[in-house]
Amino acid sequence: IAQSKVINNSLISSYDVLQKILDNIGSGIIVCSRYSGNILFENEMAANVQEVRDTIRECLEDVFTCEDVHRSTGASMERYNTESGLWFEVRFSELEWIDGSEVIVVTSVDITQKKKNQQKIEFQAHNDFLTGLYNRMKCESDLKTIINEAVRDGVKGAVLFIDLDDFKHINDGL
Question: Which of 4, 5, 23, 84 could disulfide-pair with 51, CB 3.0 to 4.6 Å?
Fold first, then answer.
């Protein structure tokens, strides 16, 4: 009897510790049945942070409306929450649950800062620092795309090139 109580208390305390770890991990976590979609577990962030909860549930609906749930596991998707302006990366993985049933673990991580950094790097790569206008690389890329579309659609066009004498010296000086 004493040994049984020790084992039971150990399991309960292990579960409590695991619950606290998952509540403080900084990601929303939901575990749901692979076949019915019933939620079996959700950590504090997935339960209480509306943006995380809405994003995860929206992704779950998308996964369960497609015919092959198995195809979505192991995959990740990025979602933008228009109400909060936040970006989330949502991942799916399969797991065998405590009772032996097959479940899907869904995790959601806020990647808003990563997206902002990507946008900033892309802007710096394609725009002039001083004027904010497209640089030569971006103009050449856009021109190539437009020419390909014109050839495909059988449309004619023209290109106008304007050169300002010594603009490079002015730009470099500023």
Answer: 84
What's the CA gap between 26 and 109, in Å, rounded?
A: 7
Residue 44: other Cβ atoms inside 10 A: 15
What distances in angstroms separate CA 58 from CA 26, 31, 39, 65, 159, one per listed residue? 20, 15, 14, 11, 46
- As given in the structure block, the two tokens for residue 48 are 């209480």
pLDDT for residue 165: 83
Instruction: In whole angstroms, give the CA distance from residue 107 to residue 81.
Output: 16
In whole angstroms, what is the distance from residue 53 CA to residue 42 CA?
A: 9
Report the alpha-carbon distance of residue 114 to residue 145 in Å, rounded. Answer: 28
What is the pTM (predicted TM-score) of this model? 0.64
Please provide the DSSP assignment of 2-34 as one string: HHHHHHHHHHHHHHHHHHHHHHTSSSEEEEEET
pLDDT tens readout for residues 19-44: 788 888 888 888 888 887 788 888 88
Q: Which residue has the tokens 């106008």?
A: 160
